Each structure stands twice: as structure tokens, then as C-alpha cells.
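Mods, move this if it's the wrong board.
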Amino acid sequence: MKLLILGGTLEARRLAEALGDRAVLSLAGSTKAPVLTPHRCGGFGGAEGLAQYMQRENITALIDATHPFAAQISHNAARAAAQTGLSLLRLSRPAWPLDPAWQMVDNLVLAAAALPTRARVLLTVGSRSLQPFIPRADVWFLTRSIEPATRNPPQGLSLLQRPPFSLADEISLMQDHKISHLVSKNSGGRATGAKLEAAKTLGIQIIMVNRPQLPAALEVATVAQALNWVESQKGNP
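Not the wrong board. C-alpha cells:
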């Protein structure tokens, strides 16, 4: 059995480490970090390219463990699995439970539009998702990401930091920069969840972006559940 894991999350990395040479971890290459398990970097060329790769490399099952907001990759995975007839599993960490105090929006453009003039914003949407906020020259942004962005909003500061973040550090960060709003994608997970508690403690308005709609797939929430699924696939063609 040879599995392909579409990665980019901590869960993907842990799953690949647990499976060892039974799996290949595919990374987009956008985040620079050491990878100790068998892996490849770069895109496939859409669903067709992914299907061709899996056939060429004799992949027997596909696990989509990409970021919850990597919608295009998940759509490509579903189409490629259908084309090749391979089993597909999606490993997706649960979203953060919704809070009635949050202002919910469906995309980043709406999140940018929801910010009032002269807001001071902690923006934690990733270095590749800043474009909708660049026109808001009337807003001060503290952007935080793992990798540098090609372009940042005109007013503010940029931090390069890797989670996890503690509650105490998040409170201190927001107080030091006089943050009035927090903008986040509902990515879920413990590593970055402290910012929500910190914002609530300080009375900071949270603007939360809903997860995109993904194609139907068998889905699990933990690495342990994914490993159980892998074991259940043994013997399948």
C-alpha cells in the first residue's frame, strides 16, 4: 500500500511521520521547514496532473490533509480520486466553536469591508491572503504570518512568527499595539486558538471568516482516526 498525503498542516506532518515509508507527503512549498519523511514539493498541475501522478507512482489511496481554507486543492483531490477510482480521506481539524459575539463573514473581501476607519487590527489570515486588505489605507494592521508576504497593507507592522502562541503573549501583543479588532479565518486548532480568548478578555471585536464549502468526502478530525482508516484500507486494490 502506498499513500499520498496532501499536506501543509501539522496534522499532515504527524500522519506522515506515523506512516513512514508507506506514504509520500506532498507540500506546496510555500512554507520553509525541515521535513524528515518522504516528501515532494510543488504543485501537480490541477486535478488532471494529480491523477496522472498517482497513476504513475502507483498510489493506492489519497489523504487530503491540507489547510481548511485550501479549497482549490481539496476540489482537485476529489476530482483526481474520482478519475482514478482511488479511496479519498479528508483529515480536517475541527473549526473553532462559533461565538455569538463574533462578526461572521464569508470571505476576506467582506472581512476587509467590515473594518471601521482608524481600526487597529491584528490580521492573522496568512501571508498569501493580504490582498483584500491593502486598499484599506485608513486602517492600521499588525500582520502575523510564518512566511513574509510579497506585499503588506500600507499602514502597520509585520511579524514573522510560528505558532503556538500562549494566552499571556497574545494579551500582551494586543495591549502593546492597542488592537481594536482581530481578523481570522476559522482554521481551528489549539496552536493559534489563544488569540480568540485574548481578544474576548480584552473586549476586542473578532471578525471571523467562515470556512469554504468543500466537495463531499469521507472526513476525520484526528491523526488517530486517519491511521485507523489507513489500516482499514489494507487489502483494497
